[in-house]
Specification:
This protein is α+β, with helices and mostly antiparallel strands. Among the domains are: 44 residues, Arc Repressor Mutant, subunit A (Orthogonal Bundle), CATH 1.10.10; 187 residues, 2-Layer Sandwich (Alpha-Beta Plaits), CATH 3.30.70. The strands form two sheets. The protein has an eight-stranded antiparallel barrel, surrounded by four helices. A two-stranded antiparallel sheet has the order 1-6. α2 crosses α3. The longest helix is centred in the first third of the chain and has 14 residues. The protein starts with 9 loop residues before the first helix and ends in a 5-residue tail after the last helix. Keywords: DNA-binding, Transcription, Transcription regulation. One of its GO terms (molecular function) is sequence-specific DNA binding. Pfam families: AsnC_trans_reg (PF01037), HTH_AsnC-type (PF13404).
């Protein structure tokens, strides 16, 4: 089978699933639960990462929403301009994800910034200045009920998951406080490869290896930063991704959102300001599953209204990774919420 059309096999998917549980686990630690020797796992991961079929990346944790801003931004484009505009926006470090979608927009972005004012500056000064952009609509999030690093493939048995959860994982604590500048620098440096050694990070950042080790251990254990193992969704069998825009009565918003966040199909769940006050990013295997999921939601929560639904036609960028049409990684623009101003996005030459 040509490499371009190769489907990920059972060991590929099991390895990705295992690294979702513990992204920096040693191959020796993963050997027993996966039933494969460490050398084979190392070779398999080298192939997957070299082909762009799987990767480990980093980002600030959900707790950092209290110290910055996260928004979903709809973008309209002139006919024939959306690919050019998407490619241009994808180079922005604060634009974590860029999707071509169906529905009442051409593009859907996720934007991280240091403040609401910085989101405004990015939308007005950066997006508004791009030739061919016809409109923007911004949806500010005030709570992430589930962020995508907690989403898992379903390729491991219960016994394998239990084995991985003993003495491993990147932590899910809730230590208060924003990332320190040195920690933020480590998060950015981990974006291209979340499995980089402490020595390699120290050499790049000009820090001691001990300082880097403390930063990585502390921010991951506290949940102030997260690592995630991603895979080319199309090759992994997740053929349909999209967004549901829900209206939930405000007194029920938190309880409904928290319940939806436990559902298998929900990859990201966030409360936003607006008539559609809950947005759910959904990953399923086919369009029939998407329809079934919507029917189940309405049955479980009769009080909600599905304001709109959209399907992703193409992921241009996801959490800092530039993707091809099957979801393979073809480049990395590390997510950096500090870089929203036009001066930071377009520095002067020299």
């Amino acid at each position: 089978m040509p490499a371009r059309n190769r489907r990920m096999d059972e060991l590929d998917l099991a390895l990705v699933n295992a690294l979702q549980h513990d992204p920096r686990a040693s191959w020796a630690r993963l050997a027993r639960p996966l039933g494969v020797d460490a050398a084979t796992l190392s070779r398999r991961w080298a192939r997957l990462s070299a082909s762009g079929e799987a990767w480990v990346t980093s980002s600030a944790g959900p707790s950092q929403l209290d110290y910055g801003a996260f928004a979903l931004v709809e973008v309209g484009c002139l006919p024939g301009a959306n690919q050019r505009i998407a490619a241009e926006i994808a180079t922005d470090p604060c634009a974590g994800s860029v999707e071509h979608t169906t529905g009442n927009r051409d593009l859907l972005l996720t934007v991280s910034a240091m403040s609401v004012a910085a989101v405004s500056e990015y939308v007005l000064d950066r997006l508004g200045a791009i030739d061919g952009v016809t409109f923007t609509r911004t949806h500010l999030s005030h709570r992430l009920h589930r962020e995508a690093s907690r989403w898992r493939l379903d390729s491991l048995s219960q016994d394998q998951r239990r084995d991985l959860e003993r003495g491993g994982g990147s932590g899910s604590g809730n230590e208060p406080g924003p990332l320190r500048p040195d920690e933020a620098a480590v998060v950015v440096a981990l974006s291209p490869d979340g499995r980089r050694s402490h020595a390699a990070l120290a050499a790049e950042l000009g820090m001691s290896e001990a300082r880097v080790r403390r930063a990585v251990t502390g921010m991951l254990a506290s949940g102030r930063a997260v690592l995630r193992c991603e895979a080319a969704h199309w090759l992994a069998g997740w053929r349909v991704t999209g967004m549901l825009w829900l209206n939930v009565p405000p007194p029920r918003l938190q309880s409904v959102a928290d319940r939806i966040a436990t559902m298998r199909e929900a990859r990201m769940v966030c409360s936003v300001v607006g008539r559609a006050n809950l947005m759910v990013n959904v990953w399923v295997h086919g369009m029939n599953e998407l329809a079934a999921y919507q029917a189940r939601l309405v049955s479980l929560f009769p009080e909600i209204q599905i304001v709109e639904q959209s399907v992703t036609l193409k992921w241009v960028k996801r959490v800092g990774r530039l993707l091809d049409d099957q979801g393979r990684s073809i480049g990395c623009i590390p997510l950096d919420p500090r870089k929203t101003a036009r001066a930071a996005l377009n520095p002067p030459p020299g």
